[in-house]
Amino acid sequence: MGGKVLVIDDDLGTRESLRMMLKDSHTVLLADSARDGLRFLDDDVDIVFLDYILPDNNGIDVLREIKTSHPAIPVVIITGYGTEELCQKVFRIGAIDYIKKPFDRGEIKAKVELLLKIRQGRTEQRQPVFLEFQNTIPEDAIKGIPSHILNVLVMARNYIDENYMARMHISTVIKEAGISRAYFFRYFKRLTGYSYNCYLSNLRIQRAIALLRNKNLLISDVAFAVGYDNLSHFIRKFKQITGLSPMTFRNLPS
User: Fold this and answer.
1) pTM for this structure?
2) Which of 36-40, 87-91, 104-108, 204-208 has the highest mean pLDDT?
3) Among residues 148, 212, 214, 216, which one has the least CA distance to residue 180?
4) 179 and 109 in one domain?
5) The domain boundary residue, chosen from 119, 154, 187
6) Angle at the Cα of 37 (from 20 to 105), degrees rounded to 5?
7) What is the CATH number of the domain that holds 25?
8) 218 and 133 in one domain?
9) d(Cα 36, Cα 8) in Å, to the nearest integer?
10) Distance from CA of residue 88 to its chain's centroid?
11) Total count of domains within the chain
12) Nearest partner of 76 among 27, 125, 116, judged by Cα
């Protein structure tokens, strides 16, 4: 089943290249600016390919806007270069992947097919592959949360984001944020959409997915780097969230 793919890139060659790669199986929408791309954006879009640098806006800002208004749509960043800093930045905001120019036809087609399977709920576990992180908080999420509670909840979330790789007990998070356990449990899920344990697990697996691209790292190295002391536990959690084992995911076409 084909999907609807939105390409936002000011380079005509890139737009046409992606269109030619995907047009036989998918509906491809093309935009040469952030403004036009956001006009195309709706819930029917399955995947967005977004240029890191656009003439009328920063790609990072556009990514934030997409993840705020349509958090379930996977976004793949297009860039002429790739660094660890860029990788961390776009994954933190909510990108599901990034690709470097020039890109390979087989890589693009395989990536789109995988994302569509995930998007359309055909993975083994039918669960989201990534937790969608947002620096901006949707207005609906904060309704009913007192302002003083909201502030410390954001502190708690930021603490988790920065220390996910360490042994982290919920009591430590609550202490760091200076919030009562009752308020934390009452409002954290409203803010993030996830319970504490689910948020932490998704965050760790998202970071693991980025590290698995480095095939010089052992699976056990990746597990340890994202906060798992037990390799079997990491493998079970990874498969539960993504529907794939870490090794299967690593061996996907890239």
Assistant:
1) 0.53
2) 36-40
3) 148
4) no
5) 119
6) 25
7) 3.40.50.2300
8) yes
9) 8
10) 11
11) 2
12) 116
